Amino acid sequence: MTAPELSALQRRLNIAESRPGEDWLVLVENVPEWPEGARPPAEAPHAAHAGAPFSYEASQGHPRLTEALVKREHEVSASRLADESHILVTAGGMHAIGLLLRDLAGQGYRKAVHATPVFCGVRDSMRAAGIRNKALPLTGTSDDLALLRSECTEPTVVYVNLPHNPTGEVLRPGYLDVLATLAERPDVHVVYDAVYDSFDFGPDRCPTPVDLAVSEPGLTIVNSVSKNYGRPGDRIGWIVAAEENIRRLVPRLEWEAVSINGRAQLDAVAAISRGNTELVEAVRAGRAAYLTHSRGLAAAGPLPLGGTQLWLDLGVEDIERFADFALERHHLVLTTSANYAPVLPGRIRFPTGIPAQRMRRGLTAIHQALEDWKTNDGKGTGDHGDSR
Fold first, then answer.
1. Which of 190, 122, 118, 128 has the alpha carbon at shortest distance from 157?
2. Domain 54-274 falls in which CATH fold?
3. What is the mean pLDDT of the chain?
4. How many CB atoms lie within 10 A of CB 18?
5. Which residue intervals define the domain Aminotransferase class I/classII large in the entry (predicted)?
6. Could you tell me the residue ranges of all domains in the chain?
7. If exposure means fewest CB atoms within 10 Å of the residue's CB, which of 3, 69, 104, 358 is most exposed?
């Protein structure tokens, strides 16, 4: 088997990192940034932290963290049923997804369906688990049920990510019936990815269906502190599921990883207990800043209802060539649709969880790069443009 190649995104980041003396404008991250002065301080060491490196935590998760997560789901997801028996702590959201897919493959699932597009890491996790994937033109409405039923002709994983990365589509109340209907089928398992569930700005916000997950074995929720609490370095995620599913997953986590880092779990307790109001408001402010500063950008359009990024169509036929052009001439590092599957032409992911000043600078730089691209017909790679 040949080694996988670096992603286009990582390749561009490596180029920027190899030239530290130059002024790069990096617009790749979809983890929101805490506003200046609101970022929580590093957690002060205490007795539990001091002892964490010298012992294994419980494989299901530190009791203080599972308790904090239950409280969180009661408050954020309006759960009335979740308790500690429904929670499993993981090493981030992607670990949760991979762990769950490997478990489902062990039960005989060999097919997965998902919306278009999907983060390539999720697609690759499906394939690594021995599950073939298929992208579907899902709409997030009740109309999806007929299509999904027609696709589920064998044991099938239905992967749902809401708010969606990267389009920002959110869960709508009418979609709960679709999820419940699918989860009732013995040959279907719904994997519901809720890693952006703090960032639903719709007028009729529908909470993550935690109570459906804990009462229906055919639906499992994955979540993470990376996006929802702006702490990707902790590598702490969690699974919410029916008790019987958690009992089956804990031994798998134990033999794969033994347990999750105890210090990081205790830091996550403090972060979740503190809350993320300032972070959510920073994303809301970023969305407003985009509307203010995007005038004149051809890609500008209505904001999605959720998420921490925008899925912009720059109207460029070869978006990879354009991203390389913008990198060299304008010192812009962009996330293109190569980060998703299937690859859609002309698209970039633009963050909304960044300060307004960088938002304005980024939009100006993209506009200038597009004008430069048109002037040079995508051929110029000489002197760097001055978008800084």
1. 190
2. Aspartate Aminotransferase; domain 2 (3.40.640)
3. 92
4. 8
5. 44-366
6. 8-30+277-376, 54-274
7. 3
